[in-house]
């Protein structure tokens, strides 16, 4: 704390991302990165752009990327917003669409960046408890609100809410914006982008960090009614004219074009998720059915924090949240088959000792 800090800064609770340890031969299963490299076409597109052109500013509107996203999802360009990772897109949505006098609603077990944005922007918030099995009951969200947000599939549970339930919510909640954060949708869900032409209060955000192996490039987007998109543009153009650098624009476009590579790597993760779930269950874990690139697992007789520590000693990092209701769970990112086998082997050794 310093006397030079503003009152706002003194009162912030910054988000703490999963660690990026600098350890050799570490098996990193803690931040839901993709174990597979980006498409070779992405790397070619970035290499081709990475020359003298970098002396110039990029297109402030990132039109090429917006057009590629619009074409991919069958929407108009003015229904697409792009940002420096979906975290930035979400931040603009919090400030531009979800800040009202009534509280913003989100699940009690959910992405921990949401309360951080509420603090930063002074947004009233109300957490809605998930059911005991971690599912969302949309009826619980039918109450006075200034906006609703949830990840689908949810993080850190991996649980998917069916599109028909999202539609049920949209039918009943017409007075505020509903943001569906689809960071993990490509690993087993159906995108709510299908509904944006039917509901003018639906905003869907997506990320290129997980299913397109581009966490390091920082590309995210939102799709919704042009009036919602305009709100995001107004915030963006009052904050940073060039959030998308040239490499992110070119790499993002190439990632959308290489559908074969995308389908192949997503399917590999889905297959590995199945074998990992079976392996964990064979070791006695209870595993939440996941539609994401991670699983959320609990051992009925072993302490999650102790397992987490013991795995670290085997150079395997997973994510542990010391929070109510989930402090006996571990969130484990799906890596390659070899990485997941190493995890299962380490757990078999560890479990009798913790
Ligand atoms: C990873 C994640 C994001 C952020 O993704 P970026 O595009 O890398 O900023 C947003 N929401 C959820 C739920 C996530 O897990």
SSE pattern: HEHHEHEHEEHEEEHHHEEHEEH
In percent terms, what proportion of residues is strand? 5-15%
Low-confidence segments, ≥5 residues, pLDDT <50?
none
Name of the CATH superfamily of the largest domain: Type I PLP-dependent aspartate aminotransferase-like (Major domain)
Assign the CATH topology of the largest domain.
Answer: Aspartate Aminotransferase, domain 2
Record field, number of beta strands: 12
Mean pLDDT: 97
What's the arrangement of strands in the largest beta sheet?
Answer: 2-8-7-6-5-3-4
Bound molecules: pyridoxal-5'-phosphate
CATH class of the largest domain: Alpha Beta
Q: Do you know the CATH architecture of the largest domain?
A: 3-Layer(aba) Sandwich
Largest sheet: 7 strands, mixed
Counted by DSSP, the helix tally is: 11
Q: Please tell me the total number of domains.
A: 2
Task: Tell me, briefly, the overall form.
Answer: globular
| Rg value | 20 Å
In whole angstroms, how far apart are the ends?
39 Å
The helix fraction, in percent, is: 25-40%
Decide which structural class fits the backbone.
alpha/beta
Catalytic activity: L-histidinol phosphate + 2-oxoglutarate = 3-(imidazol-4-yl)-2-oxopropyl phosphate + L-glutamate
EC number: 2.6.1.9
Protein name: Histidinol-phosphate aminotransferase
Keywords: Amino-acid biosynthesis, Aminotransferase, Histidine biosynthesis, Pyridoxal phosphate, Transferase
């Amino acid at each position: 704390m310093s006397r030079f800090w503003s009152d706002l800064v003194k009162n912030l609770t910054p988000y703490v991302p999963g660690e990026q340890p600098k350890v050799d031969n570490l098996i990193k299963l803690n931040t839901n990165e993709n174990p597979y490299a980006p498409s070779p076409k992405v790397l070619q597109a970035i290499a081709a752009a990475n020359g003298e052109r970098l002396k110039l500013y990029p297109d402030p509107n990132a039109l090429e990327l917006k057009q590629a996203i619009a074409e991919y999802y069958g929407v108009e360009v003015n229904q697409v917003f792009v940002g420096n990772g979906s975290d930035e897109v979400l931040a603009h949505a919090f400030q531009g669409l979800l800040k009202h006098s009534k509280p913003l609603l989100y699940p009690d077990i959910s992405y921990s960046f949401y309360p951080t944005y509420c603090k930063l922007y002074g947004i009233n918030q109300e957490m809605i408890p998930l059911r005991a099995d971690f599912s969302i009951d949309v009826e619980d969200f039918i109450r006075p609100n200034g906006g609703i947000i949830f990840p689908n599939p949810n993080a850190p549970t991996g649980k998917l809410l069916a599109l028909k339930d999202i539609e049920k919510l949209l039918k009943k909640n017409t007075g505020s914006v509903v943001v569906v954060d689809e960071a993990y949708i490509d690993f087993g869900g159906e995108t709510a982008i299908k509904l944006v032409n039917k509901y003018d209060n639906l905003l869907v955000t997506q990320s290129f960090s997980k299913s397109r192996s581009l966490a390091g490039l920082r590309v995210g987007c939102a799709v919704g009614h042009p009036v919602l998109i305009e709100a995001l543009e107004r915030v963006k153009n009052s904050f940073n004219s060039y959030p998308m650098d040239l490499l992110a624009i070119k790499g993002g476009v190439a990632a959308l074009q290489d559908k074969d590579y995308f389908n192949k790597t997503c399917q590999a993760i889905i297959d590995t998720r199945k074998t990992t779930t079976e392996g964990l269950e064979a070791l006695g874990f209870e595993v939440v059915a996941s539609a994401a690139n991670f699983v959320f697992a609990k051992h009925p007789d072993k302490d999650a924090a102790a397992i987490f520590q013991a795995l670290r000693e085997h150079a395997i990092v997973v994510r542990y949240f010391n929070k109510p209701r989930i402090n006996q769970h571990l969130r484990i990112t799906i890596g390659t088959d070899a990485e997941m086998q190493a995890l299962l082997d380490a757990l078999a050794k560890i479990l009798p000792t913790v």
